[in-house]
Amino acid sequence: MGRLFDFMLPENKSPLTADSTDGLFNFINEASLVIFLGVVLAMIYFAIRYKRKSEDDKTPVITHNNTLEITWSVIPLLLTFIVFGWGYSGWLNLKTVPDDAYEIHVTGFKWNWSVSYDNGAQTINEIHVPKGQPIKLVMQSRDVLHSFFVPEYRVKHDVLPNRYTYVWFQAEETGESQVFCTEYCGTSHSNMLAKVIVHEPEEFQTWLDENGGGPSGSPVEQGEQLVSLQGCQTCHSVDGSELIGPSFKGIWGRDRNLADGSSVTVDENYIRESILYPGEKIAEGYQNVMTPYEGRISDEEITNIIEYLKTID
Ligand code: CUA
After folding, report:
1. Ligand 1, atom nearest to 186 Cα
2. Burial of residue 185 (number of CB atoms within 10 Å: 0-12, 13-18, 19+)
3. What is the mean pLDDT for each group of 10 consecutive residues in the chain (313 residues)?
4. Whose Cα sits closest to atom 1 in ligand 1?
5. pTM of the model
6. Which atom belonging to ligand 1 lies closest to the Cα atom of 110?
């Protein structure tokens, strides 16, 4: 496109997430430039035009001018509406992950980014992705607050302990993009760096196949094993049949009615909470009888169980 203030921005390597940010950034700066020039030029003109010419030059008394005052109030008001609407629609776009997004898990800890893929592959400080496909990063922290930021994709989100957050992007060209941690997290905060490495789709598949597997299997397999070892199926069926607790079948992404009359979408954070603190949100028609798993299960195990539950539909 080539807008006036593009020189202040890093390269745009994920147009689907970056375009609206860049457009708004340019609009705000262009509007500011126009207003700045208008004010400065008018000031210079008035200074010259109305300079006192002689000792008995009298200043006329002008109390106010309605037209002028309404104009300089309404125009900035409209500008703030435009900026709000534009910003809000851009934010919605960043929050709405395309359905066909490929999911990758990212865990931040002092001071590295650990990355795991659906087939059990793991990397550290390298996020391998295929180009031309939406990628959803599901993120959590093992210790303190971090923040995941890829300037070239214009995506940035806090990474928290005890909660999942996400970003999505779609890289359109192969190559590398820098990842920063942008929340001060201790001594080596500024070294908490990673790279997104974008491959051709076939090349990515090859990379994934070569690095996958591992001795303990994919996250889904490990999750399935855990669910069976922990005896979850005594109370939760995987085929939709009714037991003490709600079935695991077909719950992912759906809305669930709760005993208190409200409802919740079954997502990562809901499942996590229901494992650790089952009494927080009781499904409609069920009793609060499950033992909390707080302190008895690791974050990684919870993530694997979630991955498994996603597959039961
Ligand atoms: Cu992690 Cu700063």
Report:
1. 2
2. buried
3. 86 95 95 95 94 85 92 94 96 95 94 89 91 96 94 96 95 96 92 95 92 76 83 84 88 91 92 91 88 84 90 88
4. 146
5. 0.78
6. 1
